[in-house]
Amino acid sequence: MAALEGLRALRRLCGVALFLSQLYVLSGRAGSLMTTKHSQPQSTFGKSLTSTSTNTPYFKIAESTEIPSYVTKCPSNGLCSRLPPDCMTCNTNYSCIYGKPATFDCKVKPYVHCLDQNNHEQENFTINMTCQFCWQLATTDYVCTNSTNCMTVSCPRQRYNATCTVRDHIHCLGNRVFPKMLYCNWTGGYKWSTALALSITLGGFGADRFYLGQWREGLGKLFSFGGLGIWTLIDVLLIGVGYVGPADGSLYI
């Protein structure tokens, strides 16, 4: 009897130990699950912070590298009064008196740096100019396109439609690019002195006309012996006064 009661007590102790061990295992798994659940949002939040902190400087750099195209036309650390008009904005006064000196208040555009007479950087300055429109400037103050299709030696003298642009350091009112009718003034490289010398010495053989590119007249003078001298004398006179010029219509040099 005593042996049976001892076995029963031993079985009860084993059951209690087994129950406690299972309870311990289950509590450990629950703790591990809780730690993993709390650790995931923290890591995600950390990643979000890292990603935003790396992206922010990127956009700032992209914005700061955008430089306007007009900056390439603006000399750095030069006199503000010598800046091209594309580098500044001015309060233009169209009520100034024509032909009289006028003063305008100007300001440099962003990214443009200029100096005053004392080598101090400044943004606001004044420019002095003559009150006149750009198309009224002297011919030395603007550059125009040239035409090689018109006749310079003609009566009356021919004109052509040119597009003129004011030089960078010149200030004026109105559009800086304007159309203008100009006289034909291009040259093909023919010299007046050479043509006159040929007309005097070898004009009877048509050398002057050949030199000027007038082949038909040159052949006519050659086979007519200069029109028996009369044509030769006439050509000397016409070339001397500049009435007869190159066949391409250009001017003498």
TrEMBL record:
UniProt keyword list: Glycoprotein, Membrane, Signal, Transmembrane, Transmembrane helix
Transmembrane parts of this sequence: 190-210, 222-244
Topology term for the membrane: Multi-pass membrane protein
Pfam families: TM2
Entry's localization field: Membrane
Principal place of residence: membrane
Any single Gene Ontology cellular-component annotation: membrane
InterPro entries: TM2, TM2D1-3-like
Domain of life (superkingdom): Eukaryota
TM2 domain location: 189-236
Family: Belongs to the TM2 family.
Protein's UniProt name: TM2 domain-containing protein 3
Source species: Phaetusa simplex (large-billed tern)
Gene it is expressed from: Tm2d3
